[in-house]
Amino acid sequence: MSHAGGISETRRIAAMAETHDVLLAPHCPLGPIALAACLQVDFAAPNFLIQEQSLGIGYGDDAGLLGYLVDASPFTFVDGSIDRPTAPGLGIEVDEAEVRRAAERGHDWRTPLWRHADGSLAAW
Question: Which domains does the chain have, with CATH numbers?
Answer without folding.
Answer: 6-105 (3.20.20.120)
